[in-house]
Amino acid sequence: MFTATLAATILFFQAAPAAAPAPTPVNAPAPDPNRTVSGVTVTGKTKQSEEAAQNVVVCHNEPVLGSMFPKKVCATVRENKERQRNDQEAARDFQRSVIVGKQPQ
Asked: Please, what is the end-to-end C-alpha distance for the chain in angstroms?
């Protein structure tokens, strides 16, 4: 046990030290403190890229009432947004009917 610890310690101290960071070249231009624009080029979204993003299929797990196992649901982003809108509209209609006292249609 002692020899294993001694051997590990010797190997640890014989390891090469970490390399120091490379010095900056002498000819490198100094950063301009008055520069207000970053070096990153930003391009706007095109209509084609937005349409392509709407057609991406996304899968997620939804809980099932009365079951311990979730159900995997896959749909496009557009279909998920449409479903969310329909669900919100149904919830609003139900809440309105409860306030007024009418049955939902």
From this structure: 80
1 CB burial (10 A radius; 0-12, 13-18, 19+): exposed
Cα 4 to Cα 6: distance, rounded to the nearest angstrom = 5
**Opening angle at CA 8, ends 15 and 20, nearest 5:** 20
> Which string of DSSP letters, residue by residue, matches 1-38?
-HHHHHHHHHHHHHSPPPPPPPPPPTTPPPPPTT--S-
Please report the pLDDT score of residue 34 as a whole number.
66
Q: What is the pTM for the complete model shown?
A: 0.47
Helices H, strands E: what count in the chain?
3, 2
Tokens encoding 21: 């960071």
Q: What is the pLDDT of residues 26-70, one digit of tens each?
A: 666 666 666 665 566 666 667 777 788 888 999 999 999 999 999
